Amino acid sequence: MTLTHLNQQGEASMVDVTDKDITDRSARAQSAVAMSAEAFAQLQAGNNKKGDVLATARIAGIQAAKKTADLIPLCHPLALTKVQVDFALDEVTKTIHISSFCRLAGRTGVEMEALTAASVAALTIYDMCKAVDPAMVIGPTKLQEKTGGKRGHWSAGDGEEA
């Protein structure tokens, strides 16, 4: 079985995963938001006028992962069993590091869901802090690791493409 986003007429279509085995699958992704010292200090102190930036970004990332099929054309709607979004603050570089994790038992992977969670969390941080620092930089955003499916385990440290 060849997986492709093209149907027999050469048109874009969702991949048919009916014959794929159901396996436990997971993915981790990361992103980052670099900001000014003033914006970072405000976020760290919890003084942002829009509220708790990281709590809001966490919820936004989780919601986004659950809605990935509505955002990315041809993605399968998935029944995720776990979505986690975490943050690490780097005081030296004034950067918020974002890590997302998604898991399910299914016929297709959750890479797009993990990437969407990390991306939307970063965009939410930007949105909530832009009044103080509209020059924030988002990224890089990348897949760190995936498990399950035909390929099994893949990690960015393995030197292979996902």
UniProtKB/TrEMBL annotation:
UniProt domain Molybdopterin cofactor biosynthesis C (MoaC): residue ranges: 14-149
List residues binding substrate: 74-76, 112-113
Presence of the UniProt keyword Lyase in the record:
yes
Q: What is its EC number?
A: 4.6.1.17
Q: Which reaction equation describes what this protein catalyses? A: (8S)-3',8-cyclo-7,8-dihydroguanosine 5'-triphosphate = cyclic pyranopterin phosphate + diphosphate
Q: Name one GO molecular function term.
A: cyclic pyranopterin monophosphate synthase activity
> Which key words tag this protein in UniProt?
Lyase, Molybdenum cofactor biosynthesis
Query: According to its UniProt record, in which pathway does this protein act?
Result: Cofactor biosynthesis; molybdopterin biosynthesis
- Active site (record annotation): 127
Q: Its quaternary structure?
A: Homohexamer; trimer of dimers.
Q: Which family does it belong to?
A: Belongs to the MoaC family.
What is the name of the protein in this document?
A: Cyclic pyranopterin monophosphate synthase
Origin species, per record, is Microbulbifer bruguierae
